[in-house]
Design goal:
The protein contains one helix and eleven strands. The protein has 132 residues and is α+β, with helices and mostly antiparallel strands. The chain is globular, with a radius of gyration of 20 Å. The chain has a single domain, classed as Immunoglobulin-like, CATH 2.60.40. A hairpin with a 4-residue loop joins strand 10 and strand 11.
Length: 132
């Protein structure tokens, strides 16, 4: 009887730990292959998808403001906060699947020594990193 109780307790503890692990979202997503480049063009930061996998639901635009979803652009380790003026092609409002040939233009100035990092958020994968 004691053995069965100990076994049940062990299995319950394992199940609780597994549930907590899964609930945290700690299971990494699969990485993807995408060639991303960043440029500083006349006071604008331009993120260019040059080839590889499309990033679905990368970000959402609303009147030029950016909400980062599966793609995050960081400056010196902090998410860029873009409240207006951003565009992906002619699009300033809508969900953007960031695929080959797509350019995201951000009205963000980049100074000497600034480090720009582009991250595929679900996998925590750095797709591009450049110091200006």
């Amino acid at each position: 009887m004691g053995t069965l109780l100990l076994l049940a307790l062990t299995l319950t503890a394992f199940a609780v730990h597994l549930w907590v692990f899964m609930a945290r979202g700690s299971v990494p997503s699969e990485q993807l292959y995408a060639v991303i480049r960043v440029e500083n063009r006349g006071g604008e930061l331009v993120v260019i998808h040059e080839g590889g996998d499309e990033i679905p639901k990368a970000f959402k635009l609303y009147n030029g403001a950016v909400t980062w979803l599966n793609l995050v652009v960081k400056r010196n380790g902090e998410n860029l906060n873009v409240t207006g003026g951003a565009r992906a092609g002619n699009l300033t409002t809508g969900m953007v699947d960031f695929g080959p040939g797509t350019k995201l233009e951000l009205p963000v100035s980049v100074g000497k020594g600034d480090r720009i990092t582009v991250v595929y958020f679900p996998a925590g994968q750095i797709l591009c990193e450049r110091e200006f």
